[in-house]
């Protein structure tokens, strides 16, 4: 899959909270959108996913920060919209995420963390050319975050992805590059170790 180019990421039009001329995600790059609350990370990701500001682009798998599960079993939600090959991967990922024993129960019986893991397994199983994840570790207990982040990173190996995070340690596991968003604009971008060790100014620091 070639690079993915997102252009004119602005919302809303009159007084945009996100104002990015262009964001390019290289083939196989896992880019973390990093920044404080209110910096525009979620809005930027929603613009990329097409849930606001225009039509949904093709070949994108998007996981919002609060994924919605439908009535029925956890398994039916895990497999929703997937073809046979993707369903096999989703089942494997459900095992990796530690929720395979919850698949025959109802979706409404799942905890917040279990719901996120089911939604993660479904999203990561997709054949889409780029994966967009919004704070995938937010509802998880701190003790579970590192293992889940490692599983996500392994599932994304060799794939293009944009992942929203505000946590340094999670970002270091999930991504290989970092774009720091401040007031809706990208202030610095580079390899994660480079950005964390040599911020360009006091605002990024």
Task: Please render the helix and strand layout as text.
Blueprint: E1 4-11, E2 18-25, E3 30-34, H1 41-49, E4 60-63, H2 74-78, H3 84-96, H4 112-125, E5 130-134, H5 142-155, E6 160-165, H6 168-174, E7 177-182, E8 185-191, H7 192-197
Parallel strand pairs: 3-6, 3-7, 4-5, 5-6
Antiparallel strand pairs: 1-2, 7-8
Helix pairs in contact: 3-4, 5-6
In short:
The protein is of the alpha/beta class and 205 residues long.
**Multimeric status of the protein:** single chain
| Main sheet makeup | 6 strands, mixed
Calculate the mean pLDDT score and round it.
Answer: 95
Structural class: alpha/beta
Report the uncertain regions.
none
Strand order within the widest sheet? 4-5-6-3-7-8
Strand content: 15-25%
Shape: globular
N-to-C CA distance: 34 Å
Helix content bin? 25-40%
User: How many alpha or pi helices?
Assistant: 7
> Got a strand count?
8
What does this structure look like?
The chain has helices at 41-49, 74-78, 84-96, 112-125, 142-155, 168-174, 192-197; strands at residues 4-11, 18-25, 30-34, 60-63, 130-134, 160-165, 177-182, 185-191. With 205 residues, it is an alpha/beta fold. The strands form 2 sheets. The chain has a 6-stranded mixed β-sheet, with helices on both faces. A two-stranded antiparallel sheet has the order 1-2. A hairpin with a 6-residue loop joins strand 1 and strand 2 (18-25). Helix 5 packs parallel to helix 6 (168-174). The protein is globular, with a radius of gyration of 17 Å. The model has no long low-confidence stretch (mean pLDDT 95).
């Amino acid at each position: 899959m070639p690079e993915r180019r997102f252009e004119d990421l602005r919302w809303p039009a009159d007084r945009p909270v996100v104002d990015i001329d262009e964001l390019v995600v290289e083939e196989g790059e896992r880019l973390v959108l990093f920044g404080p609350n209110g910096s525009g990370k979620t809005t930027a990701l929603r613009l990329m996913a097409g849930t606001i500001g225009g039509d949904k682009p093709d070949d994108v798998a998007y996981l919002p920060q609060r994924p919605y599960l439908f009535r029925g079993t956890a398994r039916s939600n895990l497999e929703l919209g997937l073809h046979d090959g993707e369903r096999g991967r989703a089942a494997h990922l459900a095992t990796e995420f530690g929720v395979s024993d919850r698949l025959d129960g109802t979706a409404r019986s799942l905890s917040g963390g279990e719901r996120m893991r089911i939604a993660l397994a479904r999203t990561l199983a997709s054949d889409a050319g780029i994966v967009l994840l919004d704070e995938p570790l937010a509802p998880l207990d701190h003790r579970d975050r590192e293992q889940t982040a490692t599983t996500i990173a392994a599932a994304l190996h060799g794939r293009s992805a944009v992942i929203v995070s505000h946590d340094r340690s999670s970002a270091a596991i999930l991504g290989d590059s970092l774009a720091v968003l401040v007031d809706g604009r990208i202030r610095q971008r580079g390899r994660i170790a480079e950005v964390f060790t040599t911020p360009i100014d006091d605002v990024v620091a």
